User: Fold these one by one.
Assistant:
Number 1:
Amino acid sequence: MTSSPDAQLNDNFFTFTIYMAKRIVPIIIGCMLINIPFTHVLWSNHLPISHTLVESISVFVALLSFIIIWNTYNYNPVNLRVIGFGFLFIAIFDVLHILSFNDIGIISNGTIDLTIRYWIIGRLTEAVVLFLAINNLYKAKISR
């Protein structure tokens, strides 16, 4: 007896979820617990480099998401395209946030206001992009 594709997809998702819960989540939690003392020392003593490192990881993830979605553009639904191009803009705003950080000072007007504005614009862009992608996904489900 063959199962429907939807049932098979649900079974695969359930298997993947169980795998994540049993294997990967404990590793991530363990790494976070081990990293707490080092992060506190690094963050309190070397704020500019710590901030730049964490923000650079954020930019890397956003750009990687854009590159993957760009290279699979023809195979992706509209909501993933929205997420991909939105993450490109988020990465741009995060780079501007890094460059305008007062202790780095590449783009500087002498106040912390500029760096906070870039950060807020990046987070607002992220919220709007995710809202549009979810809204588009919801409409696609309804139209069937």
Number 2:
Amino acid sequence: MSGESFRLPDDRLIEVEPYRVLSGIYDQVMSHVDYSAWTDFVLDVLADHGLPSEFGEPPPTLLEAACGTGSTAIMIALRGYNVDAFDGSPRMIAAAEAKAKSIPGRPRFKVADFMTRGTGKTYDAILCLYDSVNYISVERSLGDFFKLVRDQMRPGGLFLFDVCTEYNSLRHFAGVEQVEYLKGASYQRVMSYDPRAGIQRNRFFIRLDKSPGDVYVEQHIQKIYSLETVRRQIARAGMDIAEETDNLIRKPPHAESTRVHFLCKRK
């Protein structure tokens, strides 16, 4: 469906900040993601690189940065880990807290952005998943974030994150439009990629059934870094790369990898 047919002449376009409206439909938009399989992958990688068992006393501590609506943090907490999690969107954190309300040993959620300095607490492992790192749009800031992560890792601590690749943007996001109808809402996603700047833009046009005639517009911008740039910033932050994986496959990345995970250790 074209943008013209989704957006009608009498629509009122309302520009809002990222995740202000998307947060309310985020779990529906992301329903294709197998969070259980991703959690299995995360915990397998961390265990293989020395994360203590969840049955230890006390259980290992994990921090998830940019946790969204908390799906992964909740699954990890349900498996017995001690989890803190943060996100820069108050509405995403509100959704996460609502989902976790009745869960014993639920994660502790808070609102904070990438560059928030720690409070002196350190962790056995830190996570930043689902290309959240790509929202850091300046290479220097990427390095600063990695340094903040390192400072919150215990000696020998682990940091697992992923990035989307340029191959992914060129193959799946350059000049693509998507329309989906959900419970209580619908949206159009207009995607573009500028290879010279390495910038991926995703514009969401969101209709809510409760607000007929209004279309909420969110623009999400991601920086697509080369893997060499990511490796350079990891080294500058004082961490070693212990493993790189092609998406959720425990094999090295290649030219057609769409997502790459990095498992880093504090030096």
Number 3:
Amino acid sequence: MGRYCCGPGPGEKTYIYVGEIGDNAAKFDYKYIYRLEEPKLDLSSPVEVDVTTIDSIKFQLPDGKRDTEAIMVDPLTKDLYVFSKREKEEIHVYVLPFPQSTTTLVTARFVMKLAVPLP
């Protein structure tokens, strides 16, 4: 399993996003981000959460197979951002604009390269 984050999504709800996005060998054609509504917890009693609905966002990168390691959701636009990590001294940033389809393959859009100097 890859990474996770929390943030807004469809409606005025808060969601947990779990990314199955890691790919050390760069061999997978598709990546997945799972979205589930953040449960409301009552910490004064034992916590038991029953998740009944999980959305699956299937996506690919526009420039081929890459190892992606981080995701975030923009709290204003609800866009999802995915970050690669295997490129030497740079990180590639991709966006899945809101609303993300849960029924068709989404092709992420390349946004930019971030320079990361090695020590």
Number 4:
Amino acid sequence: RVNYSPRILFSLFISLKEYLKSYYENDLQLSKDLVFLRKYSFLKEEQVLENENIKNKIEPIKQKLEKLLTDQEILEKIKQDPRLSIIEENGNLFLLVSDPRGYIQASGRTSRLYPLGLTKGLSLVLVENHKVFEHLKIKLRLIGYKIDFKKLSEISDLEKIIQKIDEDRKIVKKFMEGEIEEFKDPVKTCLIIVESPTKARTIANFFGKPSRRSYQNYWVYEVSIGNYIVNIIATLGHFVDLVHQEGFYGVKKSGKYFIPVFEPLKICRKCGRHVSISVNKCEVCNSSDFWDKRILIEFLRKLANEVNEVYLATDPDTEGEKIAFDLFIYLYPYNSNIKRIEMHEITREEFLRRFKETRDINYSLVCAQLTRRVSDRWVGFSLSEEIQKYFKNLNLSAGRVQTPVLGWIILNEELRKKEKYYLGRFYYNNNNFIDLNFEEKEIANKIRKNKNNLRLEIKILEKKEENINPPPPFQTSDLLKSAWEVLRLDTNTTMNLAQDLFERGLITYHRTDSYYVSDYGRDLAREFLQKQNKENLLYTRAWGSPGTHECIRPTKPFTVDDIIEQAILNQEQILSRNHLRLYNLILNRFIASQAKPAKTEKALIKIVLRINDEPIIEETREVIYEIKERGFDEFLNIIKPISLEEKIYDITDFKLTRLSKFVPYTSATIVEEMKKKGLGRPSTYSTIIQTLLERKYVILNKGYLIPTKQGKTIYEYLKEKYPDLISENLTKQLEEAMDKIEANELDYQAVLKNLFIRVFGII
């Protein structure tokens, strides 16, 4: 019986949402109804009936469910669903669903905390209805638990497990009877430090509802994970930076050594400018309102002093390693038991695994980041001060990556004015069309003059079957390119959205230049395809060898609908439409990379455009004219076959466009160029483009990066006076040197020495 109880309605809705979609105009409205029911699930039916306002809101929801449950066609589909079980008794329909939170609570009680630790526990599930059991496994996954259920017959050491349970019980009994007086406190305390508040919340929520405390707007989350009481706090990114005044732009020279000098960050709340600790008024906006990270350091020291252990869980790249190193330096006098955690995805399983697999700070990574920071400061500050002084404008800047990239954009615009061609689109046979390129103006004039006498001849020269392999999963540059081409999201927006998805535990680390897929990733693809009843498409690939990072992929076998349901079940904020679109792009690309090739029929064809019988354009090209098996393309839909028939067609219409051979750069294509030429890194691509836009060196016009007069003026000045410092070669050499420093193949002091001579020997 469908009644007015929000709890029962919510349970029915969450289970039947796939079948309820046809009753809604869009998924958003369905999600809003689910959120509404979840919000009021504490109310009993009588309370709803007494409140006219809530009753009126529930009424249309209730009617949709009643309509669905009387539709025999839909009921038959539900009965065939491998995860839903509907039974009929005495003319009444019952939907059987699992209780995942009930299972977690019940199975947790099989193990107890006692003075020597945790007792051994064993959870046995008696499965009477396999559909309900499948439902339980899926819902457990949605609330964050990946449990590997095993058949009892598959457990070879069952007797040993039961023996250990009995031994623990005997010890507990002796404690209770006073026979054992020894006490070992099994619970330790620890502090886990991450960069972002979202990441801190996500980790804390893996282990129930955390308690919270705050100090000067810094929140600490506290949870229990068995034998540890865990405190989690975020630094909100970097908390120290090079000083401004000392030595050479913050780097002291002592004999043959260069010593970078760092101090806590002080940031103007009004304009965001970083200032020295000693500054009391911002020189740009005159504000005296600052965000001083000395307060954070003071609080972290206090927390470190309270706990047994400190874990540094900053991002798994050189920048994250440098933040971890800074934390180590500031906290070591207060707690020497400091460990490094390297998490490549924010999931419960990954956290628990990495929590046991800690390591020391990797000083090679720290030195590589120090080299990057010092080189940015030396080249950037020296050139920036020069142009600020010359052009009398404090908002100008230059840099070892941003300035060469600006040069590419300017050169591209110059080439676009010179190199031109014609694109002809010719329509035939009921709005089919074919595009032909040519350069001669005479041909364009002939086509226009003879528009009623145009013919298109297609000859098939050769046919063959060919398998087309899928593209690899995303790395950073590919993601930025596809996000623009498919979703029209610029690089800055894409990286911010990806950061949110990473911190919510939905994708792996998004700043990567690796295509590698781990064993876990391949198993995840298998699990996803099994859920979609498409396991026949599975064709796993590693796409390379293990390295520092993986590709960008989902962390769970979740569709967009699953993510929305997870947010509702966990009472989290539902992600924005763009978050979900980007996630779906990443999911489809990853699953396609683990799917079978597409089987196609290809043809080598000759295309001849004629005026009457005179050929004016001839071209040979290979085309796909039939897909035999879609394979990976079921997820990407990028293979577009054309209808093919040997024939001479009349041209019904045409369009000629004069185009440049050089297309203006978009954010995505400039990132692709940076990757190809070895400038910048996944963590800096977006920042470089954003800086060029903020300085008004380039503007965005319909998604294209167009250089401004100011950008051209600045670049020409620097090119004339300091060609060596703004050359691609300098930046490329530094990037290669930093890679060698990371691999412990090169001393960073030697790199700084060479750079010092190049910069300060010129400036």
